Automatic annotation (TrEMBL):
NCBIfam families: LIC_12616_fam. This is Phage neck terminator protein gp12-like domain-containing protein. Residues 6-135 form the Phage neck terminator protein gp12-like domain.
Amino acid sequence: MTLPKGTVVPQYQPELKSKAFITVNIVSQQEIGASRLVFDGAKETVKSSLISMVSISCYGKNAVEMTLKLKSILQATRVRERLRGIGGAIINMSDVRNLTYVLGASAEERGQFDVYITHSHVTTLSLEPIELVDIYTNNSIHQHITKD
């Protein structure tokens, strides 16, 4: 399952060079529940479960038909297995929208739909040991506590 080189491009390009192309854009991400924290004494790992809304737009001749086909491909067993292999899953897809519009004397065909994907996000932080702490009490007594 591959697409020709140059057909999937980042959205928000100042100038797109191809007549037919697909853009993929993460629109939003929502955390599901609380993050899980793991600390091993030197580093902390924060694991979060997310739902991301990804907008997929197809441009060019027969864009709406291409969008319908792409939506069907994303429901295939092979795609679901690959996503599951990296800890993700498609949980919902919107209807395909026909966003074709007239530009000058010609029409620009565009089809679009949203995909909701669950996945994990992991961040690892190294934690340096605290060597010196300044403590101020209610009586404004300044104390230094150092690591032995």
